[in-house]
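Entry under discussion copied across for reference:
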Amino acid sequence: HEQTTKLLSDLIKNNNEFSAFLQQQQNNQKAKGQSLHSFLILPIQRVPRYELCLKEIIKLTPTTNSDLTNLKQCFDKICNVNKSINDRINEHHDREKVKSVEQRFAIGQNVSLVAPARTYIKEGYLKKVSRKKDIKYLFIL
């Protein structure tokens, strides 16, 4: 979604015809004033809404109802799908952070830091205190 949003922003900035077309479509009665960006986010928002909706339905369903078991199973599956999506998004963010570190340190070199098992944890400076001179080191985990 982030790549799509960035691409859309770049196209709107750099392509006046595309920008005018999007504005025209947003003003269309069928679009109800919604922008393309608001339509692109809908699939991402849908799964968490299912989870919330099922949670509320389960809360309001009597314990004697025969559908309660199926509702709980469905809720568990939706939760698993939602967790899987969030995990994938976090993995993508981690890879992007590793790429960022790679770009900072592998300038002009054919070095690839991105690997499936490699994740970005944290970075910061540590200062080695000595009698002569304190030295600052950058650590990236």
The mean pLDDT is 86.
